[in-house]
Amino acid sequence: MKVLLVHPAQLPVFAYGGTERVVWDLGKALVALGHQVVFLAAPGSTCPFAPVRELNPHQPLLDQIDPHAQDVVHFQVQPPTIPAFPHVITEHGNSKTPVDLPLNTVFLSANHAARHGSTRFVHNGLDWAAYGPVDLAQPREYLHFLGKAAWRVKNLRGAIHVARTVHRPMVVLGGTRLNLRRGFRFTPWPSIRFMGMVGGQAKHEALNRSQGMVFPVRWHEPFGLAVIESLYFGCPVFATPYGALPELVTPDCGMLATDSATLVQAIQGQRFHPGDCHQRALQFDHFQMAKGYLDLYEQVLAGERLHATAPRLSENGHRLLPWSMT
To answer: Spelled out in words, what is the top-level CATH class assigned to the domain 129-282?
Structure first.
C-alpha cells in the first residue's frame, strides 16, 4: 500500500516534539511492514527511510495532493475541505468549542473518541529503540513533571504542591521558573528545578533518574505521550483520571485520583516496580499504531466511511476539571 502522510510541521523532530514524533514513527513502522510512505511536510523536512515533499504554505493544501499518486492520504490536521479521494484524518487535540468533524476522523483513545460520540481510535505508539537503553536499577533522585507547563490545564501548580508535600525535589521538563505567557507564575523553591523545553538525550537521562511522574492534569488528555515516555523509563505515574489516562496507567504502574492527598499517599507508599512500568509502555509501540491505521486504510479503500454521522465534541475540551489540594 502507498500512503501519503500529511503534516504541516518540520520533520524529524529535534527537541520536545509530540505529534511530529508520532507521525515520524508511524511512517517508520509502515515502511518496516512493507508499505510505501511519502511525507508531505514543512519546508526543511528530511527523512532517511521515505521520500519527503515540501508543503507550500502559500498554495491550497489539497491542490498539492495528486489523488492518483497514492492509495490513501493520512492527514494529521483537519483539511480545509473534505477530500473526494480515500483519506483518514487523525484528530490530535481537544477543541475549545463543539464542532462537527469529517466522517473519516480518527481519535487517539477510547475516551477521546467517546467524547466525540465515536468509537474510532488508534492509540499512539512510539519507536522505543530510538529512546536508547534504560537502566531500571539506577538510583532515583526526584519526581518529575513533563508537559507544557504554561498551559493551565496541565496543572503544574498541583504537581509542585504534591512534590513539596512529600518533601521531594522535582524536575520540570517543559517549562521555566518564571512564566508570563499565559498569566503570571513564578516558582521560588530551589527544590523545583526547571529544564525548559528539553528533548533528546537530555530528556531521556532526566526521566531515567526520576522516582515518578506527577501529572494532575485538569483536562481530558487525548492520549498522553509524556505518560508512556515516563513509564518507559520505569517511572510510575501519579495523575488525575481524566481523558485517556485510565487507558494508560494501570494499578501496578501508578495511581489516578482527583485529590493531592491520594497521590501523596501513593508516592509515599513506594509499591511500584520500575520493571512493571517499563513493560506497560512497551505495549504502546509504533507497530501496534501502524497496524491500527492499516485496518482503517483498508476500510476507506473499500469505500467505507468511518462514521455514519459527523463526530462532534460534546463539551469544551479545555474547561478546567476538578482537582483538590487536600
So the answer is: alpha beta
